[in-house]
Amino acid sequence: MLYPLTYMNNYWEIRTGNGVTTTNRTYKVYVVELCGRKLKANMIVLDTGRYDVIIGMTLFSKYHVVIDYRNKRVIFIILHQLEFQLIGECKSTKDKE
Asked: Does some domain include residue 68?
């Protein structure tokens, strides 16, 4: 599915491992699939060539994400759904009922 590219009124400066890049391009309400779950997010378009997607705080707060830095896990605790986590591969944190 193709989503319409839109332009923001202001430019964002994003620091990456390769320096600073600027952009004002975004995809509004893009569907991201993580571990077989479809989540809606807004995406900012970067021309870095190094990253596919940078998932930010807006998506994390919307889907009640807990970041476990020590164990390198990202845990999604979405209301009325089974929790799931990212640890290099997708795993459910609860048994399916």
From this structure: yes
